Structures are given as structure tokens and as C-alpha cells.
Amino acid sequence: MTRPADDAVDAAMARALELAAAAQGWGDTPIGAVVLGPAGTVLAEAANERERTGDPTAHAEVLALRAAARVHGDGWRLTGCTLVVTLEPCTMCAGASVLARVARVVYGADDPKAGAVGSLWDVVRDRRLNHRPQVTAGVRAEESATLLRAFFRARRGL
Asked: Which residues form the CMP/dCMP-type deaminase domain (predicted)?
């Protein structure tokens, strides 16, 4: 199975950071996600839209996975694909990654309060599940963390 090159992953993370920054404009937590196909081409991208749409499941990862499934050509299976996201996925998003059969999850900043790719839980490496994506953590982590800290400081009036 092919895997996107590091430069494609870095470019996807740069785009995910742009999407994350844009989410602030409509009041959402700045998280962005990009799904790469097996050859490294962008299949889909999204930013958080929970506040914008009033949908508790409108996390960037879920939206990007849904959109990628529509164009990937294997139904709901995202075999060989890579999910690139600015923040460690939560339990819902980690579970969606497993269920979508993505080959790899790449994320920026750790989420010690809700992360489910190693920080608080480790859904994607749970041996009881029938699929376990590879994980690459810490890609442009400081940029993502800085964006999130600034958002929450402004939100709290600090």
C-alpha cells in the first residue's frame, strides 16, 4: 500500500491549520482536518462547524471523513487514506477513523483532556477493534497549540 510522502502530509497540515484559523471566524474551536488519498492527493477538508451548524457531531475530522468517503470510490471505506488533523482526535473522531478504515492518523497538538489517540484513551490502537491505523503525532504541534491557546484566551477574556 502506498503512503503519502512527508511533504504531502506537511502541506496537508498547513492547510488544516488554515482551516482551523478560519473556524474562529464563525465562533468554532480552531480545528482543521484534511484527508489525503493513498497517493497523497487531497480528497477532502473541513473545519469544526459545531457552533456554525448546531450539530454536536460536526467536528472537522467527521466532516472531512464524510466528504472523503463521497469521492474516494470505495463506499465508506477510506482504505489507504490518511487523516491529517490539527488536534488529537476525541473518542468520536478516533472511532470514526477506525470505522472508516483510514490507514494513518496524523495530528498536531496533543489533547490531554479529551484525546483518544494516546493522551486520555487510545481508541485507534485498541487490539479489540478490527482495524488499527498508524499514528503520527506532533506534526506542527506548536502552531496548532498556539492557535488553540489564543482562541481560548480570547474566549475567556484573558
From this structure: 7-120
